[in-house]
């Protein structure tokens, strides 16, 4: 009897293909938790549409035989202007969770952002080998949030990213309809067992939303940002800034970098896509503040678009989880390999040899 040949599928050629493979294996509730957004998901769709409205004006007759996607971010050199975004509960997608994703980031030469709600503790994630940034939610308990900062410092994290657009979790209707709860074995590993247990109990809605309502402080203000600035010497990043006026206030508060983001459409439904405000925010902060775009990045072309509009780099979140679900660490490596290859291709075809030259490209929007 001839044995059945079990061959691996051909490598994915786009992040869309990776998403489709992940969707085929993820439980429906988890798939909705990762893919979904707030309200009618207007901002989720707008993030993608806004990027596709941006067209580049390529330069010609330049020698692009040698190119580099390398860049500097917050004092470190990376292989490309991209960081893995903070995403909660990677173990929903794969048992190796954040550890596998961090190892893939290390192999790709990009930073990995460990989330407050990660499913492995920050110490284990940082030990996986990637340059690690730590994302902080403003917890109600001051001692616990300060403890998280000190743990991140002791673990060797090289930057602190404070999320400022989540006083509570947005109304994510898919999760409410699904009564989404964390399965056994998946916890908020950086928090105490008592603090994280609520995410396993649903009372007719999303247990994760209920947990965050109990844990996060909606009272975060600029005074708290200024206090945090005095409590750590790590570079400080604010994630979730959209208004140029807020960006200018952040610079005055001593912030080193901003993530221009509407939280992937998962907070205020109808919030403007970050890519629409990038040029104005760049003008407001000047060149002394690093800008990262988050929301809807699905290709190396999108990275180039962000650079041309004033960003220093981008964050990528959902595609990393898709890669993890599709093929563990190898799947995340494939996601980052695709982004690197696509960025190199787009860079050269636009007549640019470096990330710095990409930032000088002109853009036009659909209809202009």
From TrEMBL:
Source organism of the structure: Streptomyces tateyamensis
Domain of life: Bacteria
Keyword Oxidoreductase: yes
Cofactor section: FMN
UniProt similarity note: Belongs to the FMN-dependent alpha-hydroxy acid dehydrogenase family.
Annotated catalytic residues: 263
Protein name: Alpha-hydroxy-acid oxidizing enzyme
Claim: Oxidoreductase is one of the keywords in the record: yes
SUPFAM superfamilies recorded: FMN-linked oxidoreductases
Binding of FMN, residues: 86-88, 135, 163, 239, 261, 294-298, 317-318
